[in-house]
C-alpha cells in the first residue's frame, strides 16, 4: 500500500513539474519588446472573453480565445491570414494555456512562442490596460 501511495505522489509531482515547465515563457521580455516594436511579431491573449475585463489585457494584444483556436477558428482564421509570416507571441493568465496554444500552432507550421503570463508581461514593463478599480 505504501508503494502505491509513493508512486501516486511521485506521479502527481511529475505532472505538476511538467505543467510548470511547459508554462514557462519561451521568449525573454527584451526580445518580445524588440519584436513587437520592429513589427515582426504580434502579441495574442488566448484567455476567454470573460477574463479580459476582470484582469486587464496587454496593450495592443489581439484578443483571440483558445476555445476559438481549438474550435471553429472564426476569429483566428482571418487574424492568421492578416499576420502571415509574423511571429505569434501568446500569453494567458498563468502561461499554461498559451504554452498549449503555441505548441498547437507550431505543429501547424507557424512561428509561435509562449510569452507566459499577463503578470509576467506587466512585471517586464509591457503596458497593461487594467479595468477601472484594478490599478
Description:
- With about 140 residues, the chain is of the alpha/beta class.
- It has one domain: Oxidized Rhodanese, domain 1 (3-Layer(aba) Sandwich).
- It has 7 helices and 6 strands; from the N terminus they run ααβαββααβαβαβ.
- α1 packs across α6.
- The longest helix has 22 residues, at about 1-25.
Write the layout of secondary structure elements.
Blueprint: H1 2-23, H2 29-38, E1 41-45, H3 52-55, E2 57-58, E3 62-63, H4 66-70, H5 76-82, E4 87-92, H6 96-107, E5 112-117, H7 118-123, E6 128-129
Parallel strand pairs: 1-3, 1-4, 4-5
Antiparallel strand pairs: 2-6
Task: Describe what is shown at a glance.
This protein has 135 residues and is α/β, with parallel strands linked by helices. 49% of the residues lie in helices and 17% in strands. The protein has seven helices and six strands.
Helix content: 40-55%
Query: Hey, roughly how much beta strand do the residues contain?
Result: 15-25%
Task: Write the CATH fold name.
Answer: Oxidized Rhodanese, domain 1
The CATH architecture classification is: 3-Layer(aba) Sandwich
Distance between the termini: 51 Å
Question: CATH superfamily, called what?
Answer: Rhodanese-like domain
Number of domains: 1
Described by strand count, sense and barrel closure, the largest sheet is: 4 strands, parallel
The coarse overall form would be globular
Mean pLDDT: 87
Instruction: Give the strand order, joined by hyphens, for the main sheet.
Output: 3-1-4-5
Secondary structural class? alpha/beta
Radius of gyration: 17 Å
Helical stretch tally: 7
Number of strands: 6
The succession of helices and strands, N to C, reads HHEHEEHHEHEHE
Amino acid at each position: 500500500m505504501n508503494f502505491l501511495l509513493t508512486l501516486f505522489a511521485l506521479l502527481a509531482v511529475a505532472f505538476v513539474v511538467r505543467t510548470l515547465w511547459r508554462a514557462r515563457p519561451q521568449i525573454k521580455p527584451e526580445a518580445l519588446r524588440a519584436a513587437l516594436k520592429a513589427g515582426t511579431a504580434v502579441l495574442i491573449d488566448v484567455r476567454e472573453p470573460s477574463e479580459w475585463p476582470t484582469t486587464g489585457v496587454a496593450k495592443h494584444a489581439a484578443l483571440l480565445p483558445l476555445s476559438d483556436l481549438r474550435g471553429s477558428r472564426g476569429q483566428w482564421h482571418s487574424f492568421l491570414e492578416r499576420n502571415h509570416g509574423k511571429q505569434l507571441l501568446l500569453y494567458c493568465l498563468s502561461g499554461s494555456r498559451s504554452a498549449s496554444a503555441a505548441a498547437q500552432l507550431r505543429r501547424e507550421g507557424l512561428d509561435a512562442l509562449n510569452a507566459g503570463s499577463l503578470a509576467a508581461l506587466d512585471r517586464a514593463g509591457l503596458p497593461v490596460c487594467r479595468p477601472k478599480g484594478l490599478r
